[in-house]
Amino acid sequence: MKKQRVYVAGHRGMVGSAIVRQLGQRDDIELVLRTRDELNLLDTQAVNAFFASEAIDQVYLAAAKVGGIVANNSYPTDFIYENMMMESNVIHAAHTHNVAKLLFLGSSCIYPKLANQPIKESELLQGTLEPTNEPYAIAKIAGIKLCESYNRQYGRDYRSVMPTNLYGPNDNFHPNNSHVIPALLRRFHEATISNAPDVVVWGSGTPMREFLHVDDMAAASIHVMELDKEVWEENTEPMLSHINVGTGVDCTIRELAQTVAQVTGYRGRVVFDATKPDGTPRKLLDVSRLHNLGWFHEVSLEQGLASTYQWFQENQQQFRG
């Protein structure tokens, strides 16, 4: 049997590396991987030459320029330009060289700031985006619409998935610009080591957030990629074809902080600084479309936090400073 040649763009990132870990265990797949130094996805000619020479069957497009609020606010040009260029180059080259299947990985920030909760796929383009990451969100929306447009005009089978907040191995634990789970894991870890009497968490602790382990995200991505085209088309619409990926369950930031304290063995006080911003009160994805397609998450938040904390402890040399 001929192996499927599968290109995972962004294979060193958190999601891309999880997809590679799972696909790498299969006998029917031959992975095609390139580092940023080997293939610059901003270079249209280089991307085209790569696809011309590699006979790719499937693409997982997990490459993206990502960052926290500060980075998004400081470098909006970089976030919109680089993400639009990468996805345009890869999706167009895939079409030009007759790649049968492609999966584009987006972000839940595509949805309006004040979207109805839980957020259905149909909330896309129904309101104003969160201003701090609007350029990034616009680029991700463009990726969805690129896939849909190639499907509509050329009959391609290019699909998009929108994950909720992700965490897990290969996350960014930088002290200043990481997301909430790695930031809390690191803060509680350091407080445990130093026997700090308390840990201060920003905000009131009342906002609700949904979290998905990256191994579940990888499994969902592969599940969606491998659905029969008829099943996919029955559960989507030509101009509303993306699918939310999440747990369908959320928790308060207070509950999250208390669980992180347990996982890290911290025994001091957890204090909430209500003078700091809370952000959106709730951000939960409606994942009924994904459930209808037969996929459900497997990693509980407590399990996922424990394994992520273990990974952090084993790899914390790279997060010094």
Task: Chart the SSEs and their pairings.
Layout: E1 4-9, H1 14-23, E2 29-32, H2 44-54, E3 58-61, H3 69-74, H4 76-96, E4 101-105, H5 134-154, E5 157-163, E6 165-167, H6 180-194, E7 198-202, E8 208-209, E9 211-213, H7 214-225, H8 229-234, E10 243-245, E11 251-252, H9 253-264, E12 269-273, E13 282-283, H10 288-292, H11 301-315
Helix pairs in contact: 1-7, 2-4, 4-5, 6-9, 9-11
Assign the CATH class. Answer: Alpha Beta
Structural class: alpha/beta
CATH homologous superfamily descriptor: NAD(P)-binding Rossmann-like Domain
Instruction: Give the helices and strands as they follow along the chain.
Output: EHEHEHHEHEEHEEEHHEEHEEHH
Which percent range describes the beta-strand content?
15-25%
Q: What ranges have pLDDT less than 50 throughout 5 or more consecutive residues?
A: none
Under the CATH scheme, the architecture is: 3-Layer(aba) Sandwich
CATH topology: Rossmann fold
Pfam families: Epimerase (PF01370)
InterPro entries: Epimerase_deHydtase, GDP_fucose/colitose_synth, NAD(P)-bd_dom_sf
Function: Catalyzes the two-step NADP-dependent conversion of GDP-4-dehydro-6-deoxy-D-mannose to GDP-fucose, involving an epimerase and a reductase reaction.
Protein name: GDP-L-fucose synthase
